[in-house]
TrEMBL record, chain A:
Keyword Protein biosynthesis attached: yes
Organism domain of life: Eukaryota
Keyword Coiled coil included in the entry's annotation: yes
Protein family per UniProt: Belongs to the eIF-2B gamma/epsilon subunits family.
Full protein name: Translation initiation factor eIF2B subunit epsilon
UniProt keyword list: Coiled coil, Cytoplasm, Initiation factor, Protein biosynthesis
One GO MF term attached to the UniProt entry: translation initiation factor activity
Coiled coil region boundaries: 477-504
Localization: Cytoplasm, Cytosol
Domain W2: 502-679
Signal peptide: none
UniProtKB/TrEMBL annotation, chain B:
Coiled-coil segments on the chain, per record: none
Keywords recorded for this protein, A-Z: Cytoplasm, Initiation factor, Protein biosynthesis
Protein name per Swiss-Prot or TrEMBL: Translation initiation factor eIF2B subunit beta
Organism: Mortierella hygrophila
Stored InterPro entries: eIF2B_beta_subunit (IPR051855), IF-2B-related (IPR000649), IF_2B-like_C (IPR042529), NagB/RpiA_transferase-like (IPR037171)
């Protein structure tokens, strides 16, 4: 072909690498039976969109890396290659566990000899890469250390095509188009590290103007140079291209490599990373944001979709009954029959499906050869090939119904269910008999409910389950907020630049809580001097216009929190050790007698609330009180005043018991004090009992 | 067919991906491909050749059904092939029959009424076609190619007949044909042009730039002002993406509004188009030949919260019904919409309206 030859002669063959495996389990149980990249998106296999995207970019040679279900991917690629003018090689390796492994494999095989495009097998984009490639090449010519260009797309924070739970924070220099720092952002930040970002201060020296951006969709389309796979080999612990590689390269002083970015705004680019994204991207395709990659451009050979008003796409062979209602945003595949009075809206229906009378389908994705009998209701779910819903079945939102599941008549499948017809145990074990669960799929059904634990790796268990949840189909953010509120612990923290989901309104008191806790944590971790910590707290007190009373309320628990009542001596965590190190800090918050009485009250209350167990609380309270007395932080009069005050005699059981613990000490104090009579003391004892 | 698969695939892919758009560009590409297909493939009978061309045509049309020029060119080529075969046949028949009696070779008439009965009676075998047949067909197709190349010349030569001094002309969008037409008129006459900017593509702005470069007094107006200024306009000159069998237009969005405004003010609407844009297909509903683009230019994708709640459609073309058009200026002269059926009969064979094999 004349145009192609011209391209080849003027420059090298443009190569691309597709990582067809997702290395996660978000689509399980559906992905137990087929590869992620072959899932139909608007009735076209996912990877076709990626191939098309690369073909438009002028890629001539593609390497597809696959691991799970490689035979299926291979067969598909072979078929696809015939109808495209790209050379597609499939590389199968069962040991691939991550992006890093694939890149190391790539380096080992020495397949790449020039700059290449690295994408995942689930990218949907109508972006033209010419400009990005040109920019990348120009940069490479000028500076060999520019090893990678990431393509980023701008979108508002709550945008539907942003993958919830896969956020990222970029520090960018708009002038040189350089990415300076990268940090992944989780939706639910359970640990302190998740909420913070740390950045090398040298960045400010080198770049007078930087941007911290959280409004970018990272669709993981990268232009990489040959060094990238080699760097993965050098750093064998790199797994993820973003969290490990980009972060690692940018924070490393030794490598001296730079990573650049290209920001696009008027094109579409997204990744089908999760079921939530599957929903969003499907809708974007139906709404034609991906034009010209829309159903009626018939990406797949043999398809013949027609566009109609109201964003309805229909194959010619579809049979619609006279009274069925096809509302907005519907795709219907070839040979599908829709019976009387069925109502379809916002849904995709595959090939050869039979939809019964009075069926209501909303926001659902129904793949090929599915039979839905009369009076069924399907909401916001995915129903895979060959599934059968008997009469009167209701599928609630967020369900994944895997291949060939049969749901018996009049069953209601609860929200977020995952059903599979695959026998429990090893997937290769064909002998295993499927034990259907009548409670889930009804008496005549076939299938069982799928539990997350099966086949999931240990690594993933570290991940906060909530972060997985948010990326699920039809997951309601309001539900997440409720759950988050309940779990919110008293530990507070700095807010990093990254936006926090549950962060809406923080009262000044909560703010102070967080600041004090953070200051103390820092002091404990870094082993600050008491004087320095006190100085910091004082500054904080003045900055927040608060008083010593407020500070005591926070500092005392902050210190006591670190005492481990069951710790052995010498571990540095016993009451004695902690107090002898940090007790003086409490002393800095106490000045006159009034303060001392208040301090005693706070100590009493804190010990009662911090420890559930009375024995533990006593173990902390007694030495603490003694220590403060010995060090003259709490003086005799103050302790007595506390003990006799009305306030200390009331309260919870634990508080009362703690007060008893103080009794011997009080006795000692009162004996040494000649002015107090024995009678009073006895009276007090009776009162407390 | 087998030999040129790659070329066909390439063009199909380009059409599908919309890397090749615009009536003129696709017409040229289609014709170029068909010349290769006809000259490289083996065929001996009329039906064989027709089937080869039809199968290629079918794939091209399916690749992007809204580029009607593709189908038009294929039909033109099919028409030429039929004509050539018929001619070759009749000359062969004359030679054979000359000794017996002098049969008058009347069947070369291109009238539709004759063709209807004729096609089936073409004997496929037993006829020795002259060896020059292949080159004759290629020659005829090259003539179509020449016609395509000279289309602007033959249209713009009629400019001085249509545009008079000190007229105010209104147009919309960017059309190469209209641009050439107006530039040619500007050589002899002085007139003013109002260009509607044609949102959301704003191609009208580019058009205005081109016209003003040629020294024409040009004003860009927003689409919303079209009706308001229409009363001052003397003539509306439009380009079009395609002309349908009934004389209706598939033209850039905004054209319908402009044509309706012109009709309201009884301003003549003149459409400049090459004949290759004339399609024998009939619009059974208004959307049938339309393309709906990415809504991005109407409502930005960044507006995340909003795009979930509203459905935005961004149709690229308008259907303009034939009663809004007063005159078509083609490369064969000026015609009223009612005359288009005749042009269709002359240029296409009725058997080729669909490419079913």
């Amino acid at each position: 072909m004349p145009p192609k030859e011209k391209v080849e002669s003027s420059e090298q063959v443009l190569q691309a690498v597709i990582l067809a495996d997702s290395f996660d389990e978000r689509f399980q149980p559906i992905t137990l039976e087929t590869a992620r990249c072959l899932l139909p998106l608007c009735n076209v296999p996912l990877i076709s969109y990626t191939f098309e995207f690369l073909a438009v970019a002028g890629v001539q040679e593609v390497f597809v890396f696959c691991c799970s279900h490689s035979d299926k991917v291979k067969a598909f690629v072979k078929k696809y290659e015939k109808s495209s003018n790209m050379k597609i090689n499939t590389i199968v390796s069962q040991e691939l566990m991550s992006v890093g492994d694939a890149m190391r494999e790539l380096d080992a095989k020495q397949l790449i000899d020039t700059d290449f495009i690295l994408v995942t097998g689930d990218v949907v984009s109508n972006m033209k890469l010419d400009q990005v490639l040109e920019e990348h090449r120009a940069r490479r010519q000028a500076d060999k250390s520019a090893i990678m260009t990431m393509v980023l797309k701008k979108a508002s924070p709550q945008h539907r095509s942003r993958s919830v739970g896969d956020g990222s924070l970029f520090v960018l220099d708009q002038g040189s188009k350089e990415c300076l720092h990268y940090q992944p952002v989780k939706a639910f930040k359970s640990t302190r590290e998740d909420r913070r970002m740390t950045m090398n201060m040298e960045i400010f020296d080198k770049h007078p103007e930087i941007q911290l951006r959280n409004d970018l969709i990272d669709c993981q389309v990268d232009i990489c140079s040959v060094e990238v796979p080699a760097l993965f080999t050098e750093n064998f612990d790199y797994q993820d291209i973003r969290a490990d590689f980009v972060h690692g390269i940018l924070t490393s002083d030794l490598l001296g490599k730079t990573i650049h970015f290209h920001e696009v705004s008027d094109v579409y680019a997204a990744r089908v990373r999760s079921t939530q994204m599957y929903d969003a991207v499907s809708k974007d395709i139906i709404s034609r944001w991906t034009f010209p990659m829309v159903p009626d451009s018939n990406l797949q050979v043999g398809d013949c979709y027609e566009y109609r008003r109201g964003l309805v796409y229909k194959e010619k062979s579809v049979v619609l009954s006279r009274t069925c209602v096809v509302e907005e945003k519907v795709v219907i595949g070839a040979n599908t029959q829709i019976a009387e009075r069925a109502v379809l809206s916002n849904c995709v229906i595959g090939k050869n499906c039979i939809i019964g009378a009075n069926v209501k389908i909303d926001n659902a994705y129904i793949w090929d050869n599915v039979v839905i009998k009369d009076n069924c209701v399907v909401q916001q779910s995915i129903i895979a090939n060959g599934a059968v819903l008997e009469q009167g079945v209701t599928i609630s939102k967020g369900c994944l119904i895997s291949f060939k599941v049969t749901v018996g008549a009049n069953t209601t499948v609860p929200a977020y269910s995952r059903l599979t017809a695959l026998a429990e145990g090893d997937e290769d074990d064909s002998d295993a008999e499927l034990i259907s669960d009548p409670a889930v799929v009804g008496a005549t059904g076939r299938g069982r409910s799928f539990t997350e634990a099966e086949g999931s790796d240990d690594e993933d268990d570290e991940e906060d389950p909530k972060n997985k949840q948010v990326s699920m189909l039809a997951f309601d953010m309001s539900e997440l907020k409720l759950a988050a509120k309940q779990q919110e612990d008293s530990a507070s923290d700095f807010e990093s630049e990254a936006s926090d989901l549950e962060e809406d309104l923080i009262s000044p008191e909560e703010e102070l809580d967080r600041e004090v806790a953070a200051t103390l944590d820092r002091a404990f971790q870094d082993g600050h001097d008491v004087d320095i910590a006190a100085l910091e707290l004082n500054t904080l007190r003045m900055a927040t216009f608060s008083n010593f009373k407020e500070m005591r309320k926070r500092v005392i628990p902050g210190v006591l929190k670190h005492i481990d009542p069951v710790a052995k001596a010498g571990s540095g965590k016993t009451a004695k050790e902690i107090l002898s190190r940090w007790g003086p800090l409490v002393g800095k918050m106490i000045h006159d007698e009034e303060d001392q009485v208040d301090g005693a009250h706070v100590l009493h209350r804190v010990c009662a609330t911090l420890y559930r167990d009375v024995a533990q609380a006593q173990k902390v309270f007694a030495p603490a009180l003694r220590y403060f007395y010995d060090e003259d932080i709490l003086e005799e009069d103050a302790i007595l005043e506390w003990y006799h005050s009305e306030k200390s005699q009331q309260g919870t059981d634990i508080e009362k018991k703690l007060r008893e613990v103080a009794a011997p000490m009080i006795q000692y104090l009162e004996q040494s004090d000649s002015e107090e009579s024995d009678d009073e003391d006895d009276e007090e004892d009776e009162d407390s009992e | 067919m087998s030999k040129n698969n790659e070329l066909v695939d390439d063009l199909v892919a380009k059409l599908k991906r919309r890397q090749l758009v615009g009536s003129s560009a696709v017409a040229h590409a289609t014709l170029k491909l068909l010349i290769v297909v006809i000259s490289k493939n083996n065929w001996s009978t009329c039906n064989q050749l027709l089937n080869i061309v039809k199968s290629v045509g079918q794939r091209l049309v399916q690749a992007n059904p809204t580029e009607l020029a593709v189908g038009n060119i294929v039909r033109r080529v099919l028409h030429v092939i039929r004509e050539e075969f018929r001619e070759a046949e009749s000359s062969a028949a004359t030679n054979k029959n000359q000794s017996e009696f002098h049969a008058a070779p009347l069947t070369t008439s291109s009238s539709m009424y004759n063709l209807l009965g004729e096609t089936s009676s073409i004997p496929d075998d037993n006829v020795q076609y002259p060896s020059s047949l292949r080159s004759n067909i290629i020659q005829e197709i090259r003539e179509i190619k020449d016609e395509l190349e000279n289309i602007y010349d033959s249209i713009k030569n009629q400019a001085s007949l249509q545009i008079h001094s000190n007229e105010i002309i209104m147009t919309i969008g960017r059309s190469k044909t209209v641009e050439e037409f107006l530039k040619m008129a500007a050589v002899k006459r002085k007139f003013q042009v109002l260009v509607a900017e044609s949102a959301p593509s704003y191609s009208g702005q580019d058009m205005a730039v081109e016209l003003s470069k040629a020294g024409i007094e040009t004003t860009v107006i927003p689409d919303s002002a079209v009706f308001a200024v229409m009363s001052r306009v003397n003539k509306v000159i439009l380009g079009t993406h395609a002309v349908l069998a009934n004389g209706g237009l598939v033209a850039i969005s905004g054209t319908h509004m402009m044509a309706a405004a012109a009709k309201h003010h009884s301003i003549p609407v003149v459409v400049c188009t090459g004949l290759y844009k004339l399609s024998p297909l009939y619009p059974y509903d208004e959307d049938s030949f339309n393309v709906t683009f990415n809504p991005d230019s109407v409502l930005g994708f960044e507006e995340g919260d909003l795009i979930e709640k509203v459905t935005v459609t961004n149709p690229y073309y308008d259907y303009v019904s034939p009663d809004f058009v007063n005159l078509f200026i083609t490369n064969q002269g000026g015609h009223p919409p009612s005359y288009l059926y005749r042009l269709i009969v002359e240029n296409y064979d009725p058997n080729d309206h669909t490419f079913d094999l």
